[in-house]
Design the sequence.
């Protein structure tokens, strides 16, 4: 897929899904690109996941060309061995008794890394953060290639934001996962994610909704931390899947939250029954992003084959968005001027304002100001 359009500013100091945990095999490393950073990922014998910059601090060869024995990652060039969770160098084979260099004072860049919902999430600090002592919550996270203090290495990553996950409301549930690559910058990927007006056109299908069912809607929004919420409401009467949920005869409420940098949470609840999803759009390489949808539910628990059937429909839905963005990328190549209109594009405007506010707060160290000062009602036809 050809990349297109201008690049977007990225938001650092947050968690992003790098890859599926199932793609990581025992004693093997895997590679991923996240915010333009090449990563080498793996899982140690004790079960901990790790993510290092895929670059040896000695001469820069990707560490993924080396070896991993379940404990240490060894560079293929001169055999430096690293403990991959901390990035700490444990061995430099060329050293003799005469050398005073302590390998343990050398670090490869290692990122905090956690598994949730089958994703391997990686915390990506601002580039260069943590190389120098500074009073910042991310201090010491992305360790520089220079010699740093031992104390730096052992600092726990406690004050990081919690790792995102799909909200769940019961012990038993089904879950499913979908992904698609999008050949556009992160901003287009995200405003596509929150766009209410494309549904009847991009997703027209007998089982979803048709253009003929377009009608005026009133939606209530409110500011939440780092984002906004489309407040609880009865979901669109013209959406077949929601009608199916109605068999439980309970009032159905839906909330959709957008939270920086890239998350859309949707929660549908009807009494004890629930469906929840977390969709993220993650920058991979320049002008490309990847959409990941993780869903969990406890509706129709006893219907056989429901998960594969839901996946077929879900996949078609995501592919419709993907195809549209591939086509959009064709247009964006020529850098056209674009528009955001009221009210249907107001969520997109909030996204840009939120992002700006977050970047400003990161630059100044001041608390983030929220662009919305209270609840807002929007109207559109979809
Ligand atoms: S380049 Fe990795 S050990 Fe020399
Ligand atoms: Fe869509």
Sequence:
């Amino acid at each position: 897929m050809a990349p297109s359009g201008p690049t977007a500013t990225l938001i650092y100091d947050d968690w992003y899904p790098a890859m599926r945990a199932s793609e990581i095999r025992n004693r093997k490393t895997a590679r991923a690109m996240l915010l333009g950073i090449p990563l080498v990922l793996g899982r140690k014998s004790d079960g901990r996941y790790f993510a290092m910059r895929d670059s040896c601090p000695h001469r820069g060869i990707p560490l993924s060309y080396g070896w991993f024995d379940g404990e240490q990652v060894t560079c293929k060039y001169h055999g430096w061995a690293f403990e991959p969770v901390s990035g700490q160098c444990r061995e430099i084979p060329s050293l003799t008794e005469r050398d005073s260099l302590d390998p343990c004072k050398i670090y490869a860049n290692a990122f905090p890394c956690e598994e949730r919902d089958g994703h391997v999430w990686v915390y990506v600090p601002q580039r260069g953060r943590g190389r120098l002592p500074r009073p910042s919550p991310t201090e010491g996270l992305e360790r520089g290639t220079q010699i740093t203090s031992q104390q730096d290495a052992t600092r726990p990553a406690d004050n990081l934001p919690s790792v995102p996950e799909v909200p769940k409301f019961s012990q038993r549930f089904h879950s499913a996962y979908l992904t698609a690559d999008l050949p556009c910058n992160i901003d287009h990927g995200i405003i596509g994610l929150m766009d209410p007006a494309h549904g009847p056109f991009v997703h027209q299908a007998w089982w979803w909704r048709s253009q003929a069912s377009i009608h005026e809607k009133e939606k209530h929004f409110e500011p939440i931390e780092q984002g906004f919420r489309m407040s609880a409401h009865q979901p669109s009467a013209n959406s077949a899947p929601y009608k199916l949920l109605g068999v439980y005869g309970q009032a159905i409420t839906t909330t959709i939250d957008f939270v920086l940098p890239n998350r859309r949470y949707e929660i549908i609840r009807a009494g004890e029954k629930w469906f929840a999803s977390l969709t993220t759009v993650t920058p991979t390489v320049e002008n490309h992003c990847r959409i990941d949808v993780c869903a969990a539910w406890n509706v129709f628990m006893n219907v056989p084959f429901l998960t594969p059937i839901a996946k077929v429909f879900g996949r078609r839905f995501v592919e419709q968005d993907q195809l549209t963005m591939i086509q959009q990328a064709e247009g964006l190549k020529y850098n056209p001027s674009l528009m955001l209109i009221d009210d249907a594009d107001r969520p997109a405007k909030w996204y840009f304002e939120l992002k700006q506010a977050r970047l400003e707060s990161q630059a100044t160290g001041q608390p983030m100001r929220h662009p919305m000062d209270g609840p807002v009602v929007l109207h559109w036809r979809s």
Notes: Residues 306-332 form the longest helix (27 residues). The radius of gyration is 23 Å.
